[in-house]
Design a protein that fits this description.
This protein has 3 helices and 8 strands, in the order E-H-E-E-E-H-E-H-E-E-E. By secondary structure, the protein is an alpha/beta fold.
């Protein structure tokens, strides 16, 4: 059996990225390596991890596209679920996140908004489906 383990985001500064998610979403730090090139957050059932761009380049010999706030976001997103969408978005923006789309209610009743984190990764902040 295979299960989804975690997502790793390659970032400019692991410590700053972890601090953003701690301050913005109240996630708890699992650990950060002494070299500050890798760290993980407890987020519920799935871990979000961060690795430095340098570590990413050492792992992927042919390179990769780094996420940047100055570029369009990748065609993927991290989804964070809460009953308090606007409050979560406001807190993230206060910590350096960038608003992409204000929250709207979808036809199926879910409220969904979008921000980008310090490294430009797209985050969907939404209510649970069916609420």
């Amino acid at each position: 059996m295979i299960k989804f383990g975690y997502t790793i985001l390659y970032v400019t500064n692991v410590e700053k990225s972890i601090a953003f998610y701690e301050k913005s979403f109240d996630f708890k730090r699992k650990f950060v390596t002494p070299e500050n090139d890798y760290g993980e957050l407890e987020t519920g059932q799935t871990t979000i991890a961060f690795a430095s761009l340098e570590l990413g380049n050492s792992n992927l010999k042919k390179g990769f596209l780094a996420s940047k706030q100055s570029e369009k976001p990748f065609g993927m997103e991290i989804v964070l679920v809460t009953d308090l969408v606007q409050a979560a978005i406001d807190k993230a923006i206060a910590n350096g996140g960038i608003l992409v789309e204000n929250p709207v209610q979808k036809p199926w009743g879910q409220t969904v908004g979008y921000i980008r984190d310090l490294d430009g990764f797209l985050l969907e902040i939404c209510t649970p489906v069916g609420n």
